[in-house]
Write a structure and sequence with these properties.
CATH architecture of the largest domain in chain A: 2-Layer Sandwich
Largest interface: A-B, 27 and 24 residues
Number of domains of chain B: 2
Number of helices of chain B: 8
Largest sheet of chain A: 5 strands, mixed
Oligomer: heterodimer
Distance between the termini of chain A: 8 Å
CATH class of the largest domain in chain B: Alpha Beta
Structural class of chain A: alpha+beta
Strand content of chain A: 15-25%
Order of helices and strands of chain B: EHEHEHEHEHEEEEHEHHEE
Number of strands of chain B: 12
Number of strands of chain A: 7
Shape of chain B: globular
Chain lengths: ~240, ~230
């Protein structure tokens, strides 16, 4: 692992530990209030407290999935399990899983008539999509659906995911994809977005694809390009940090 | 005498066992729990429960060993409780005879749906159901008819066989290898590409949106699961 990668991974680990601590503080705080002030709380307040605990726990669950990826990357233990996968199956399972976590999320996917098979690590790609959906759900306009559109040319398949964030995040996102992710992360919700995107970027790079974003009239579109050909270098496995 | 199904929970995390027990109680199932593999095996032998929920990561015995021991002497359905990252463990457990799996963390609805499907499938030897119905989709195996919105769906022979197999096991996950063996025979190689192509074609014929199926779901790295049968 080179110095830049070490620096990136260390930044990510620091961010994870900070964010996990923050979310846990919220969960401990909310449950303490519930237990200590139960008799003074209205039913509405009780529901609100329990809902916030559930939301925080769901968010933390995804953070742990990302954390596992980062730990494996740091240990150099993440061989990609590259196989021919049906892209629509990966998308459909990612939508199914995010819907279990956030039942009111609305994702609309459209796939080409022709069945697309791509070389990928399906579980990593699924995690990438879940990250993007979560960012969109948590920080975008929830009244608008998240749209996924797939197109392909001779060499690449393109996934375009629309409505990923609100106006306030656009500039940060644009710079995120252009610049080195190894930098001080901004406060608050932007941090979660940036962290999720850092993981996404690493996953796509490991698949020899590209990830970029463009601003549109209604938000930002994330564009992922994945090559049709086999993405691994060696028959057995490819290290994540190549 | 309480004739509601009895479920044995073998799970070393007491909090999770209590959580599961309370879900089961709410759905009128009887439950017992064991926090170790040895205790679980003893209770399985003495209680003969209607179903076992088994956590693979027990402190004393490998979960796989428990599946092997229970399945060698009985046909009690087993649902494995598994961590998300271990797809290979899920496949191994299913191939060793476990009837289904559920991934932590899970909600009460998901758990109860798995249990229902498992118990229903287990009782099928006594009552066979020839009609599968889910929302606007019907398979009538007596009439060899597949209908979507009351209109016949034209399928190839393999596609029809695949749908029949999945509908017979509706609600349960079926691994790639078990499907391939049942449809193409035991000598087919384990390349599941042909299965995926057929499943993609089926999705285009029976799902409104192939990327967001409502009848047949994919479980990445494991297999396929058809939605539960509304017709019972």
């Amino acid at each position: 692992m080179n110095t830049k990668e070490k620096c990136e991974n260390n930044c990510l680990m620091r961010s994870f530990s900070h964010d996990i601590r923050s979310i846990l503080t919220g969960i401990i705080g909310s449950s303490t209030i519930y237990l200590e002030k139960k008799t003074m709380l209205t039913e509405e307040e009780k529901t609100s407290i329990i809902s916030s605990i559930l939301d925080d726990s769901s968010q933390m669950l995804n953070m742990f999935e990302n954390l596992l990826i980062v730990i494996k990357m740091m240990d150099g233990q993440l061989p990609l399990r590259i196989e021919m996968e049906s892209l629509e199956e990966v998308i459909s399972e990612a939508i199914y899983k995010i819907t279990l976590r956030y039942p009111d999320i609305v994702v609309k996917a459209s796939v080409p008539d022709k069945v697309l098979f791509l070389y990928m690590d399906a579980l990593l790609m699924e995690q990438l999509l879940i990250n993007l959906f979560e960012c969109s759900y948590l920080y975008s306009d929830r009244t608008k659906p998240i749209l996924i559109n797939i197109t392909n040319d001779e060499n690449y398949t393109e996934l375009r995911i629309s409505n990923v964030e609100t106006d306030e995040c656009r500039n940060m996102l644009a710079s995120e994809f252009k610049n080195n992710p190894c930098m001080e992360l901004p406060k608050g919700i932007l941090k979660c977005i940036r962290m999720n995107f850092c993981i996404c970027k690493k996953i796509i790079v490991a698949h020899k694809g590209t990830i970029s974003c463009i601003n549109t009239d209604i938000g930002t579109d994330i564009i992922i390009k994945l090559p049709f050909g086999e993405t691994r270098d060696e028959p057995e496995s490819t290290n994540f940090n190549h | 005498m309480n004739l509601n199904p009895q479920i044995l929970i073998i799970e070393d995390e007491k909090n999770i066992a209590m959580y599961i027990a309370s879900i089961l109680r709410g759905a009128s199932y009887r439950s017992e729990f064991a926090t170790s593999g040895i205790c679980g095996l003893n209770l399985a032998a003495s209680l003969c429960p209607d179903l076992i929920l088994l956590d693979l990561g027990l402190p004393d015995i490998y979960g796989f060993e428990i599946i092997e021991k229970i399945k060698s002497s009985s046909d009690i359905p087993i649902i494995v409780i598994s961590a998300r990252t271990k797809e290979s463990d899920k496949v191994k457990a299913l191939d060793m005879g476990a009837d289904d799996y559920i991934t932590k963390p899970f909600g009460s609805g998901e758990l109860l749906a798995r249990i229902r499907a498992c118990l229903r499938h287990h009782q099928k030897t006594t009552r066979s159901c020839t009609v599968y119905k889910h929302l606007n989709f019907t398979i009538d195996t007596d009439k060899r008819l597949v209908l979507l919105n009351e209109e016949p769906v034209h399928l190839t022979q393999i596609e029809y066989k695949l749908l029949c197999l999945l509908s017979e096991n509706a609600g349960k996950v079926m691994t790639y290898s078990s499907i391939i063996e049942k449809i193409w025979g035991p000598f087919m190689d384990d390349n599941n590409q042909i299965l995926r192509v057929n499943m993609a074609n089926i999705r285009r014929k029976i799902e409104e949106n192939p990327a967001q199926p409502v009848h047949v779901f994919t479980e990445i790295g494991v297999g396929y699961r058809m939605a539960e049968n509304d017709a019972g």
